[in-house]
């Protein structure tokens, strides 16, 4: 199967989230009436986000033939908690969704670390070839990262405005993850596996 272009994958990754942000910002001045029901801007944006993410995930699967466990888990939790928010017209369910996702990832990675399973290596080894010790270190660091993000999400949605939480979800969380990945560049280099294409004596 031909690998899709990088920009296509980026659109599928960011498109639904940016659509969610745009719909919320356009409607944050007041409630949205739909099908005889009045929705808050966040619940209405969630209503748009759920099918957009489902469609983007389906297209990614059709183009690549595979989905990462994180992508599947995210879609399931978005449908469940986002659906509850829309059904009950209560944005709190969607707000706690990142907390559940990040606690789930932190728990799985923490168990993987303690059990010496290296599940993270099984998922990402093709993109980031490292030795077993490198993966153990990265697994623990990522478990702590996700735990911290879960706590941060609870602090922001419970203690700050809805708009602040939307900014945090759309831009803050991805930025924290990006900075984390860049900050671990030294780990990647220190534990990188030799390139099998390199010949001795060059």
Please give a handful of descriptors for the protein shown.
202 residues, mainly alpha, 2 domains, two-stranded antiparallel ribbon, 8 helices, membrane
Brief sketch in words of this structure:
With 202 residues, this protein is mostly helical.
What does this structure look like?
- The chain is mainly α and about 200 residues long.
- It has helices at about 5-25, 40-65, 70-90, 90-115, 120-125, 130-160, 160-185, 185-190; strands at about 30-35, 35-40.
- It has 2 domains: about 1-85, no CATH class; about 90-195.
- It has 8 helices and 2 strands, in the order αββααααααα.
- The longest helix has 28 residues, at about 130-160.
- It is globular.
Alpha-beta content class: mainly alpha
Helix and strand run = HEEHHHHHHH
Mean pLDDT: 90
CA radius of gyration is 19 Å
Cross-sheet strand order for the largest sheet: 1-2
Q: What characterizes the major β-sheet? A: 2 strands, antiparallel
Report the helical percentage. Answer: over 70%
What is the percentage of strand-forming residues?
under 5%
Number of domains: 2
The coarse overall form would be globular
Name the quaternary structure: single chain
Low-confidence stretches: none
> Counting H and I runs of at least 4 residues, what is the number of helices?
8
Number of strands: 2
């Amino acid at each position: 199967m031909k690998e899709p272009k990088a920009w296509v994958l980026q659109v599928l990754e960011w498109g639904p989230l940016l659509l969610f942000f745009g719909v919320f910002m356009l409607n944050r001045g007041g409630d949205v009436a739909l099908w005889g029901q009045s929705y808050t801007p966040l619940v209405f944006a969630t209503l748009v986000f759920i099918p957009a993410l489902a469609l983007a995930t389906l297209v990614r699967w059709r183009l690549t033939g595979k989905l990462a466990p994180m992508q599947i888990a995210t879609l399931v939790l978005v449908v469940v908690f986002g659906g509850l928010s829309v059904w009950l017209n209560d944005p709190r369910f969607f707000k706690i969704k990142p907390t559940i996702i990040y606690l789930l990832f932190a728990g799985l990675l923490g168990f993987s670390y303690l059990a010496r399973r290296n599940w993270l290596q099984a998922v990402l080894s093709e993109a980031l070839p490292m030795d077993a010790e490198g993966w153990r270190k990265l697994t623990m660091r990522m478990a702590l990262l996700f735990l911290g993000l879960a706590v941060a999400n609870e602090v922001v949605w419970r203690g700050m405005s809805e708009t602040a939480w939307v900014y945090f979800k759309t831009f803050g969380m991805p930025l924290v993850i990006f900075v984390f990945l860049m900050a671990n560049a030294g780990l990647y280099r220190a534990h990188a596996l030799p390139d099998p294409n390199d010949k001795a004596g060059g």
